[in-house]
Automatic annotation (TrEMBL):
InterPro entries: DUF1842. It comes from Pilimelia terevasa. It comes from the Bacteria. This is DUF1842 domain-containing protein. Residues 18-137 form the DUF1842 domain.
Amino acid sequence: MSAPTAKAAKGAAATQGGLFIGSWQIGTRQAGAPTLSIHCTFDAASGSVHGLGQLQQSTDPPLDMSCRLDGDYAYLTVMPDASHIMLTLTGHPALHWPTPGGPGPMVQPVLNLRMVLAADWQTGTATFQYRRPDGRWERVESAPCQTITDAPLAGMP
């Protein structure tokens, strides 16, 4: 599978070697609704995606959760002129484990994301579920997503 660099450059910054980056904001932007920002690196040769996610919600108590994202993407073409891109990502808490400390603990996921983007990588729809600090899982369905054009190239906004 290969990603057309010209298409990727519109919604994501293309680089040499089949790697490109992209950032999206997911959510309805309504007061109190959760907003998920993701910043990802794509490997066109393998179809893998890795990055960072930040989920925020202005509730009481407020939610501010960061996670490491891993998954894959694929082109979905059901008709000749109707292609989409499907991202499937799983988020785990970002742990800072010492290098000589061994493989580290087994950590359960805190986020599951399915996002379908238009062929231009600019907009789409996402469904995600996340684990709240009290252990309950919340689900957000059919949330709009759009590219973040002013995101820094490294780290979170």
